[in-house]
Each structure stands twice: as C-alpha cells, then as structure tokens.
Amino acid sequence: MSQIDAGWGAGPSARYDSLADRFRPVFAEIRAGAAARDRERRLPRAELGWLKKAGFTTLRLDPASGGHGASLPELFNLLIELSQADSNVTNALRAHFGFTEDVLASPSPEWRDRWVARLGAGETVGSGVSETGEAKVGQFDTILRRRGGEWLLDGKKFYTTGSLFADWIHLSAQDEAGAPVVAAVPTGAPGVEIVDDWDGFGQALTASGTALFSGVVLPPESIKPETQRFPYAMAFFQLVHLATLAGIARAAAEDAARLVAARTRIYSHGNAGRTADDPQILAVVGRVRGHAYTAGAIVLKAAEAVQRAADAALSVGREAAEPALALADVEVNQAVTVVTNLVLEATTVLFDALGASAVKAEHGLDRYWRNARTIASHNPRIYRERSVGAFAVNGTRPPREYRVGTA
C-alpha cells in the first residue's frame, strides 16, 4: 500500500513509493515481532541484518557505490516508516547514517573513497561520542596516544547506541595534549568491549550502554583527517529523533484503530451497540491519527531545510553556506517541542479509546509512550525553544555544536 493510500499523504518525491516498496516487506516483518522483543528484551540483531541485506544502510550512497541515491527527505520519510515498525532499530542506525553524511561531506578524497567502499559493501557504524565521566564540557576522558606509527586508545564511552550491532565505532577522543581526535574503531579489535548495560525504561533494545577501550592499537588510517562533523550535523541528528517520534505516533495510531475495530465488548453508558461505531471512541482514534499525521508532515518539511543546507555546503563550502545551515537548525529546533508534544499526547490518549485490557503486556502499547519519552529526553527541548526565540527576537543563530560534560 502506498503512503497516500494509507492516508499519510504523499512522500517527498515522485519515486518515493517505488523506493520504499523494496523495504516495506522488511519493515512489516520487523513490526510483527516488535512488541514481543520489547517484552522479552531481545536485541534486534536479526532485524538489523535484514535491513543490511536489503541495502537499507546504503540509502545515501549513489548507485555506482552500491547505494540508492536517496535524498535527505527520502531518507527521513523512510526512517518514519522504519520507526513505525520499531523505533529501537531506527535509533540503532542513527550513528551509522550520521557517519555516512560525514563520509559524503569529507574534504579528504582518500578517507571518503575508503569509507564509501566500506559502507557500500554493507559495513555499519555505531556511536562512540558521549561520556558520563568527569571530563569538562567539550573535553573527553578517552585518550588516543601516539606510539611510533600507530595510535593507542584507552577510555570509556556511554550512550554507544548501535555499536553492539555494528562493524565500527565512530569515536571522539583527545590526544595527550588535549587536542580533539576522531577515529573509526573496529568493534572486533583486541581491547574493545561493548556492554549492553543500558537500563532506560524506553528504547531498551538500542544497546545504548558502555564501550570500554583498553590498549586498542589503531593504524594511522583509522584517524579521521578532520575532527569537524558534517556541516548540517546538528539539524540532521535531531531530525532523526523527530522522524523516530513521528513513526512511533503512526504505529500507535494504527494499533489503536486495529484494536478498536476488533473490540466486541461495550459499556452500558457508551454511545453505540458496537465500539467501532461509538463517535466518542472514533474521535479519540482520529485525534491520535491526526497527531501522527501532523508530526510526519513537520518532519518532512524540516527535512527540506536540511537538504537545502547540505546542497549549499556542497556547492559553496561550509563558511559560505552558514546562513542555510543556521536556518536548517532553526527549522528543526522549532519543530522539536511541537512534534514531541504531539507524540507524547498521542501515545497517552490512545488508551482512552480502549478498555482496561489495553494495558495487558501482550499488546505492548505502553512501549510507545516509554520510547517517545526517552527520545524526547535527548538534547533538552527547552534549550531548542530558547534558541528559536533568540533567533526570532534578536536574529541570533543557533549554536553550531552541542557538548555535554561537567561544569
């Protein structure tokens, strides 16, 4: 079924449904087991393997490199559909798609060619940026030391989302002098240990826990030539979260409709002889679906701004593209609170359309709110609202980089 026929509106391009159709059978299979995986805390290793085999991880590469040449709006719409199946899987791929953008935007031909070949062959990348130690804001406790012609890595990372499932870890660290260093670390290298100790009440299957590095030896080609992320990174990474939220809302809306349609019991004080005909119940289902529709439409609109920023950076360079990059951040930032509010409300009020049986673990409806609340807690939205206000009132551009650490 096309996105239009499903009532979610047109995709971002004329070819979108033909592109999406190759992945929709995989999405359907992923969704079929999502509630049970959440209930049993089974990591989605097989599901990520299905996507990799289908070529989903190479979306942004051009066809000559083994990809599909997807635009950014096409990518984000596909992430909505994947999140509708299982938001854990989308989050596990967030770092991979960000690393892909880093590769495509890299000014180093050697680095870019090497990694396009690896990504095109299906290799995947997880996150190794965040820490929870004592490092100050903008610094890292993870250290890369030069040892002759090699590098020696020691340290500890947390929120290493997706790394347990990946071939590589995109790692941020600093050298002995305190200068930033970025590296690609093989997950199977001696001295690398990835622990599934993420205990959040939502997004529990993303393996967003600890990665330990003890005397890991890296060759010079593992060190990224430049430490900067791709120019539109802030807008991109936040929009992945918003696309994930929009997909959660779609899943919640469809589950609510399905369960109402199947419901045979009614209340004596209801409005119809069949739950599916009760106008109050239908209004609740419509409200949830309207929230999901609006969230998805906002994500696709913001994706257009990110595409403009990416095109500008490619054509005129990072510095000259700064106005477009700043506007992409503004558009994404001003979408954050609206989308999160829509999805958090949708995943709460859906229960009003159902009876007490809706809270049974077999349905897994609670996971929608838990997952949405967890994603909405990343990159605090109150600061996004403030930056939008500063732009609107004073013309102040949003920060180009966000870091976390001790004061």
From TrEMBL:
<dbReference type="InterPro" id="IPR013107">
    <property type="entry name" value="Acyl-CoA_DH_C"/>
</dbReference>
<dbReference type="Pfam" id="PF02771">
    <property type="entry name" value="Acyl-CoA_dh_N"/>
</dbReference>
<dbReference type="InterPro" id="IPR036250">
    <property type="entry name" value="AcylCo_DH-like_C"/>
</dbReference>
<dbReference type="InterPro" id="IPR050741">
    <property type="entry name" value="Acyl-CoA_dehydrogenase"/>
</dbReference>
<dbReference type="Pfam" id="PF08028">
    <property type="entry name" value="Acyl-CoA_dh_2"/>
</dbReference>
<dbReference type="InterPro" id="IPR009100">
    <property type="entry name" value="AcylCoA_DH/oxidase_NM_dom_sf"/>
</dbReference>
<feature type="domain" description="Acyl-CoA dehydrogenase C-terminal">
    <location>
        <begin position="240"/>
        <end position="378"/>
    </location>
</feature>
<comment type="similarity">
    <text>Belongs to the HpaH/HsaA monooxygenase family.</text>
</comment>
<feature type="domain" description="Acyl-CoA dehydrogenase/oxidase N-terminal">
    <location>
        <begin position="28"/>
        <end position="123"/>
    </location>
</feature>
<dbReference type="InterPro" id="IPR037069">
    <property type="entry name" value="AcylCoA_DH/ox_N_sf"/>
</dbReference>
<keyword id="KW-0560">Oxidoreductase</keyword>
<dbReference type="InterPro" id="IPR013786">
    <property type="entry name" value="AcylCoA_DH/ox_N"/>
</dbReference>
<dbReference type="InterPro" id="IPR046373">
    <property type="entry name" value="Acyl-CoA_Oxase/DH_mid-dom_sf"/>
</dbReference>
<protein>
    <submittedName>
        <fullName>Acyl-CoA dehydrogenase family protein</fullName>
    </submittedName>
</protein>
